Structure formats: C-alpha cells, structure tokens
Amino acid sequence: MMINRKQRIFAFIAAMVLGIVILGALTFISLGAEHECNGAGCHVCEMIKQCKKLVAMVGGAAPGCLIFIAALRILKDILQDIATSIRSDTLISMKVELLD
Ligand SMILES: [Zn+2]
Description:
The protein is mainly α. Helix content is 70%, strand content 0%. The protein has one domain. α1 crosses α2 and α1 (5-32) packs antiparallel against α3 (61-86). The chain is rod-shaped. The model has no long low-confidence stretch (mean pLDDT 81). The structure holds zinc ion. Residues 35, 37, 42, 44-45 line the site of zinc ion.
C-alpha cells in the first residue's frame, strides 16, 4: 500500500495534534498538582480530572511519546520527498557538454 504525500502530511498533522494534546494534558496535571485548592468546586481540580480522563482515554504518556516519534518520522519522510523532488538533475549540473 503506497502512501502519497497528502496522506503523509495529514498523518503528520494528526499525530502532532494528538501528541500536543496529550503532552499539554500531562503538563497541566504536573503543574496543577501543587495548587492552592479551594476545596469543593475548585476549577483547577476539575481541569486536572478532565486531563486525567483524556490521558487515560488515549492510553497514557508512553503512546503520546510514541506518537511524537512517529510524527517526527513522518516529517522526515515528507522532507526527504520534498528534497528529492526539488533536487533534479539538469544538463548543467550533470556537466553535459552539448556539441553541435
Ligand atoms: Zn483544587
């Protein structure tokens, strides 16, 4: 199954968005762990609870890191494709001598 450039770019964007959301949730959980809690109805505690649900739903931190690594791999492939398409051999770059 061949994956074309558009599909790779879409996969890269989707992986980056998912990875950013997961890492953002983990960052909020770690930063909000030592907040000054107001007790019942604390907005920070409610947000932490939502972030924990999100991370549990996606599967934890390790898949988030793997998603980032996969996204970087996809980005590398995209950049290699672009570099290959830009770098085209011309008669001048191949130093072909045209004689009439
Ligand atoms: Zn709180």
